[in-house]
Amino acid sequence: MPQFLSPEWVAAFNAALDGVTLGPAGGEGSLVAASGSFSVRQVVTGVPPEGRTLHTTLVVDDGTAHMTLEDPGAADREGDPNVVVVIPYEMAAAVSRGEVHPTAALGTGEIRVRGDLAVLVAGQAMLGTAAVQLGDLQRATTY
Predict the structure, then answer these.
(1) Mind listing the pLDDT tens digit for each residue in 58-113?
(2) Which CATH number goes with the domain that contains 15?
(3) Nearest 5°: CA angle at 97, between 94 and 102?
């Protein structure tokens, strides 16, 4: 069972989406999202056991998506994302488990977002269509 946000979990996430076309991004109100190529960086704070910070970047390109896990201090990141979400680990885990909808999570005030919010909405919509492919990973993940 992969640990949430571990390299194994990210590899399993990507394997679940390998070869899956998620369809158009949509992205009303955002030329970037409508282009079908965008990225969303998630900065997760307070990751157990030592409370470190992790960065994941979801890259969407032409109806497909993949995630990278990055060292926050590394210089070789995926580039500047279109949107950055800063979220505490417990909230990220609750969203991953399906206990909290991403939109509701934004309303809690615990999450900070900068960049093109429509890109964030488009990315979540695309992942919503991948729920079947990601279901096994969600059930197998440990937190």
Answers:
(1) 998 888 889 999 877 665 555 789 999 999 999 999 999 989 988 888 888 889 99
(2) 3.30.1050.10
(3) 55
Measured distance CA(132)–CA(123) in Å, rounded: 16
Q: Which residue range forms the structural domain that includes residue 29?
A: 7-134
- For 16, list phi and psi in degrees, rounded to 5: -65, -30
pTM, two decimals, is 0.84
3-state secondary structure string, the chain?
CCECCCHHHHHHHHHHHCCCCCCCCCCCCCHHHHHCEEEEEEEEEEECCCCEEEEEEEEEECCEEEEEEECCCCCCCCCCCCEEEEEEHHHHHHHHHCCCCHHHHHCCCCCEEEECHHHHHHHHHHHHHCHHHHHHHHHHCEC
pLDDT in tens, 109-138: 889 999 988 887 777 777 777 787 888 999
The phi, psi pair for 44, rounded to 5°, reads -105, 120
